[in-house]
Amino acid sequence: MKTKEGFMLRNVAGKDIVVAVGAASMDFNGLISLNETGAFIWKLLEKGADYDTLLKAMLEEYDIDEQTAKEGIDKFLESVRKADLIEE
């Protein structure tokens, strides 16, 4: 999985947001606000991380069990898929 070209993570006034840049801004009008975990996952997706890589990274970074990590990843992926922000 990888974030689609034209979408960038930015930190504005201490808030992590995803914005469309270039040609993508013609089709996507707005921004998406991410919490700390969402920004962590987004950065991994920018590098083309697969699901297992996301899971391993979440377990290493946060003090959570595997089920909680999977639920968080699944919820995040569902939202970015709905917004059409990633390529499978």
Describe the fold and architecture:
The protein has 88 residues and is α+β, with helices and mostly antiparallel strands. The chain has one domain. The strands form two sheets. Strands 2-3-4 form a three-stranded antiparallel sheet. A two-stranded antiparallel sheet has the order 1-5. Helix 3 crosses helix 4.
Short description:
With 88 residues, the chain is of the alpha+beta class. The protein is 49% helix and 23% strand. The protein contains four helices and five strands, in the order E-E-E-H-E-H-H-H-E.
Count of domain modules:
1
Distance between the termini: 5 Å
Q: How big a fraction of the residues is strand?
A: 15-25%
Number of helical elements: 4
Order of neighbouring strands in the sheet with most strands:
2-3-4
Order of helix and strand elements from N to C terminus: EEEHEHHHE
* Largest sheet entry: 3 strands, antiparallel
Radius of gyration, in angstroms, nearest whole number: 13 Å
Shape: globular
Low-confidence spans: none
Q: Tell me the helix content.
A: 40-55%
**Structural class category:** alpha+beta
Report the count of strand segments: 5
Q: Overall mean pLDDT score?
A: 94
Tags for this entry?
49% helix; 4 helices; alpha+beta; two-stranded antiparallel sheet; 88 residues
How is the topology of this model organized?
Elements: E1 2-3, E2 7-12, E3 15-20, H1 24-27, E4 31-34, H2 36-46, H3 51-61, H4 66-82, E5 86-87
Antiparallel strand pairs: 1-5, 2-3, 3-4
